[in-house]
């Protein structure tokens, strides 16, 4: 039986494959061209190894004076439980500074991790970056 078809070893594939340079480059903070807003792209995998860099970028965006920080997880295929739990803490911390963190998701795996730690109800659903980056009346 090949390793690829053996489901018992699927977690080992991630370990051996590692994170390509392209995937690492996708973890980035970008300016969407809207005042008071930053977009944080999560990349392909957000695991414990990438969490410090992700948290650093998230902290930087919150300290920048933005009113809205959109975390774009549409291309994210793996979200660790630790990162999902960290999003809860980041949301609460940002809210005390009157900054809103918004999520943009696209895969069932990411939604499942958010549901497992009880974070999903803290975030509204958005369909696009433009939709999530838009300031809402009363904010």
Could you explain how this protein is built, in words?
The protein has 139 residues and is of the alpha/beta class. The chain is 40% helix and 17% strand. The protein has a four-stranded mixed beta sheet. It has a two-stranded parallel sheet with strand order 3-5. The N terminus is likely disordered.
Map the helices and strands:
Layout: H1 10-17, H2 21-25, E1 28-30, E2 37-41, E3 45-46, H3 51-63, E4 68-73, E5 78-79, H4 81-96, E6 100-105, H5 108-116, H6 129-133
Parallel strand pairs: 2-4, 3-5, 4-6
Antiparallel strand pairs: 1-2
Helix pairs in contact: 3-4
Report the radius of gyration as a whole number of Å.
Answer: 16 Å
Structural class: alpha/beta
Count up the helices. Answer: 6
Averaged pLDDT: 80
Q: H/E order of the elements?
A: HHEEEHEEHEHH
Low-confidence stretches: 1-21
Spatial strand sequence of the major β-sheet: 1-2-4-6
General shape: globular
Question: Helix proportion of residues, in percent?
Answer: 40-55%
Strand content: 15-25%
Q: Count the strands?
A: 6
Largest sheet: 4 strands, mixed
The rounded distance between the terminal residues' Cα atoms is: 56 Å
